[in-house]
Write a structure and sequence with these properties.
Keywords: FAD, Flavoprotein, Oxidoreductase, Plasmid. Residues 7-336 form the FAD dependent oxidoreductase domain. This protein is α+β, with helices and mostly antiparallel strands. It has helices at 15-26, 63-79, 101-113, 154-167, 216-222, 292-303, 364-379, 402-412, 418-428, 432-436, 455-464, 470-477, 486-497; strands spanning 5-11, 31-34, 50-51, 84-93, 124-127, 143-152, 171-173, 176-184, 187-194, 200-210, 232-243, 251-255, 261-267, 271-275, 279-280, 315-326, 340-345, 353-358, 448-450, 453-454. A hairpin with a 7-residue loop joins strand 17 and strand 18 (353-358).
């Protein structure tokens, strides 16, 4: 233990930590990453699941962040067309609304032209009296603006970054808690504990990257012993999922009287996702749950637009996460910057430390590139930026090739139902064939746990994506938790407890 000296040791298995690890190992650095829980078990799976420029950030003059985000949309779509795809958003408007039409038009003009849009269609104006998008809404909304952004399976994007980092040689350690980190003789000496086995290990690294998300200050205080650390503002965002409220494939952007916005988004075929809230959070991020106040807020806000009200009893699932925003002193949670901040510490011969604050899904790749610039300055540059033209695992097919990929899978595995094939391509892309292997009939996929989740898929997730528990499979690697009963989920948990963890 401790004999191998890594160039970089990353703390945190969210999107920023996994993105930095992937970029670094692809440039030739030796990399280790430790995540105390499962990948994307915190903020990175609790987002609104959008690859977007952040239209509302324009109101806070965050033009650099919006431009970078807009530029990233099509880059990320091309990197992972299985888990990222375009989504049109309908922004209903009525006279006397929160924002005047000229301001919305100006914002959407900037949105169309700031970021080098090539494939995504531009903004258009809708007559809601004739357009199908007006059908589920109140008659008050006779007009709407429609614009483009993107959708992402957030937790899968995280685990695919981890998978690619591991494939390129990084040491990836989920369920591994960093107990302490100290500088000694120009190196970091990091002590870790496997939270499953209790095994303690020692590691050495030339540089440490703290990408612990909501726990970034906690890591600074506990692992490094710096008691005064206070860099992040924790903001809770909660979402509700209800049975499908509309048949349209487009999403809605709703403006609320309190100047906040919420989205209503088609979700997993049979549901509608509504969110998010924005409120300061001071408790332990592990304990975050949607509050009754947030539930009522989201239901009421959506009901201002939909003809058919959204009621608490319609909710089939909720999720909450804590966003670790950089504390810029903003007075309101929704006004705090969504931009990221990278702070490099370590002078002279002291081993350098990079603390990562803030960030969002859309800009994780650029954050990683900027982190590598600082890493190169601190310990010596290796390799050139490479991720812009890369593919995440399973994403090596044309950016508009999803339907062709589904057809290809159905031709090879003719026993697959259409919806099953579609879900497999959405999750695994070209790697769906590795999951299905030599199967010639549905029985070859093994035990059915519920929905269309078969033993073959569970085995793949255990062997290739570090899944250890039913929750990992049902709520992060997939969203089959929406379709399985409590009894079926318990049966899956018992099955997984009886098989060994064996990530290759």
């Amino acid at each position: 233990m401790g004999r191998n000296i890594h160039d970089i040791f990353v703390i945190g298995g969210g999107i920023n930590g996994c993105g930095i690890a992937r970029d670094a190992v692809g440039r030739g650095y030796s990399v280790a990453l430790a995540e105390m829980n499962d990948f994307a078990s915190g903020t990175s799976s609790g987002a609104t699941k959008l690859i977007h420029g952040g239209l509302r950030y324009l109101e806070h003059y965050e033009f650099r962040l919006v431009r970078e985000s807009l530029m990233e949309r099509e880059i990320l779509w091309a990197m992972a067309p299985h888990i990222i795809w375009p989504l049109r958003f309908v922004l209903p408007y009525h006279k006397g609304g929160i924002r005047p039409a000229w301001l919305i038009r100006l914002g959407l003009f900037l949105y169309d032209h700031l970021g080098g849009r090539k494939l995504l269609p531009p903004t258009s104006v809708l007559d809601m009296r004739s357009d199908p998008a007006g059908k589920p809404l109140k008659a008050l909304f006779a007009k709407a603006f429609e614009y483009s952004d993107g959708w992402v399976d957030d937790a899968r994007m995280v685990v695919l970054n981890a998978r690619d980092a591991a494939d390129k040689g990084a040491t990836i350690m989920p369920r591994t808690k960093v107990v302490s980190a100290r500088r000694e003789n120009g190196l970091w000496h990091v002590e870790t504990t496997d939270t499953i086995t209790g095994r303690n290990d020692s590691h050495q690294a030339r540089m440490l990257v703290n990408a612990a998300g909501p726990w970034v200050d906690h890591v600074i205080r506990s692992a490094f012993g710096q008691n005064e650390a206070h860099h992040v503002r924790l903001v809770q965002g909660s979402h509700i999922v209800v049975k499908k409220k509309f048949d349209d494939v487009r999403a809605y952007f709703f403006q609320n009287p309190d100047n906040r916005i919420i989205f209503a988004i088609p979700y997993e075929g049979d549901f509608t996702l509504i969110g998010t809230t924005d409120r300061d959070y001071t408790a332990d991020p592990r304990d975050v749950r949607i509050s009754e106040e947030e539930t009522v807020y989201l239901c009421n806000a959506a009901s201002e637009y939909f003809k058919e009200p959204v009621r608490p009893e319609d909710i089939v699932w909720t999720y909450s996460a804590v966003r670790p925003l950089y504390d810029d002193g903003a007075s309101k949670a929704q006004e705090a910057t969504r931009d990221y901040v990278l702070k490099l510490e370590g002078e002279g011969t002291a081993a350098p430390l990079l603390n990562v604050f803030g960030g969002k899904l859309t800009t994780y790749r650029r954050l990683s590139e900027h982190a590598l610039e600082k890493i190169g300055a601190a310990i010596g540059a290796k390799g050139a930026p490479w991720t812009a033209k890369s593919h995440l695992p399973g994403g090596d097919f044309p950016v508009r090739g999803y339907e062709a990929q589904v057809d290809k899978l159905k031709r090879r595995y003719q026993f697959l139902a259409d919806q099953h094939a579609r879900r497999l391509v959405r999750r695994y892309g070209t790697r769906a064939e590795a999951l299905l292997g030599d199967a010639r009939g549905i029985d070859d996929l093994g035990r059915l746990f519920g929905g269309d989740l078969y033993e073959a898929e569970v085995t793949y997730l255990v062997e290739h994506e570090w899944a250890r528990h039913a929750e990992d499979v049902l709520w992060r690697r997939t969203k089959d938790g929406l379709r399985l009963s409590k009894e079926q989920a318990q049966s899956l948990e018992e099955y997984m407890a009886a098989i060994p963890a064996m990530v290759g």
